[in-house]
């Protein structure tokens, strides 16, 4: 695997399900330890869009993608999950291109649901370089109630209630698959149930990643 600056080999990875708090925990670890956080979802939704469009055109598909109703209302959650999982390897290569370009004297923490255990495992020297975070059913419901970006469905569909229901079930299926994959590869799974706040969950991950993380910034200056 081409890795000109050694970034991939030293990266730490947080994969898992939607609404588990991956981005929040990665930001906390970045602030505490002075490392760089790479947010997969941000790049996937923005910087990678031109590559996605170009790929669709090369395959003879409409550049704009499927009709929102076809994608979210008239497709079953199982079909949606299968399509999402099938697309992750291609999207993962785009994320690796981003990460290869980062030069840092400290590890990079990459987080996102597209950072799948089966894709990351060949890149890491130890299973300790990755964690999979998934929400429990109760915590997922709480996130959907309390996070506006989780509860809102903004794709302009004819039946937003059904589309949201399909999306939630798709996300559950994709998260379940991440857990199965993590266990096949000996990667730790953390179920987030809301009993610990974000700082406490970050403590768990800091302990897990401790062989690879530099000392905390506040400890160095105290």
Look at the structure and give the CATH class: Alpha Beta
How many strands, what sense, and barrel or not for the largest sheet? 5 strands, parallel
| Cα separation of the termini | 40 Å
Unreliable stretches: none
Series of H and E elements: HEHEHHHHEHEHHHEHH
Which architecture name does CATH use? 3-Layer(aba) Sandwich
Oligomer: single chain
Instruction: Kindly estimate the percentage of residues that lie in beta strands according to DSSP.
Output: 5-15%
What value does the average pLDDT take? 90
* Domain count: 1
- The radius of gyration computed from the alpha-carbon positions, rounded to a whole number of angstroms, is 18 Å
InterPro entries: P-loop_NTPase (IPR027417)
Organism: Nonomuraea zeae
Protein name: Shikimate kinase
Q: Could you characterize what this model shows?
A:
- The structure is a single chain.
- The chain has 222 residues and is of the alpha/beta class.
- It has one domain: 3-Layer(aba) Sandwich (Rossmann fold), CATH 3.40.50.300.
- Helix content is 54%, strand content 11%.
- The chain has 12 helices and 5 strands.
- It has helices at residues 7-10, 22-33, 40-45, 49-58, 68-72, 77-100, 117-120, 137-146, 148-151, 160-184, 198-208, 217-221, and strands at 12-16, 36-39, 108-111, 130-135, 188-192.
- It has a 5-stranded parallel β-sheet with strand order 2-3-1-4-5.
- It is globular and about 55 Å long.
- The model has no long low-confidence stretch (mean pLDDT 90).
């Amino acid at each position: 695997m081409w890795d000109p600056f050694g970034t991939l080999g030293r990266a730490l990875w947080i994969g898992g399900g939607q609404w588990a708090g991956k981005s929040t925990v990665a930001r906390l670890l970045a602030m505490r330890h002075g490392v760089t956080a790479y947010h997969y979802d941000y790049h996937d939704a923005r910087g990678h869009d031109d590559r996605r469009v170009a790929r669709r055109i090369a395959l003879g598909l409409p550049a704009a993608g499927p009709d929102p109703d076809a994608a979210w209302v008239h497709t079953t959650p199982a079909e949606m999950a299968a399509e999402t999982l099938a697309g992750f390897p291609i999207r993962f290569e785009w994320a690796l291109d981003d990460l290869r370009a980062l030069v840092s004297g400290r590890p990079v923490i990459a987080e996102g649901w597209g950072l799948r255990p089966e894709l990351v495992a060949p890149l890491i020297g130890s299973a300790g370089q990755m964690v999979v975070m998934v929400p429990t059913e109760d915590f997922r419901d709480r996130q959907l109630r309390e996070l506006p970006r989780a509860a809102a469905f903004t794709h302009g569909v004819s039946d937003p209630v059904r589309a949201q229901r399909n999306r939630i079930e798709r996300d559950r299926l994709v998260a379940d698959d991440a857990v199965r994959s993590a266990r096949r590869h000996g990667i730790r799974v953390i179920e987030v149930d809301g009993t610990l706040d974000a700082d406490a969950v970050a403590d768990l991950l800091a302990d897990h990643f401790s062989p690879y993380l530099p000392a905390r910034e506040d400890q160095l200056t105290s």
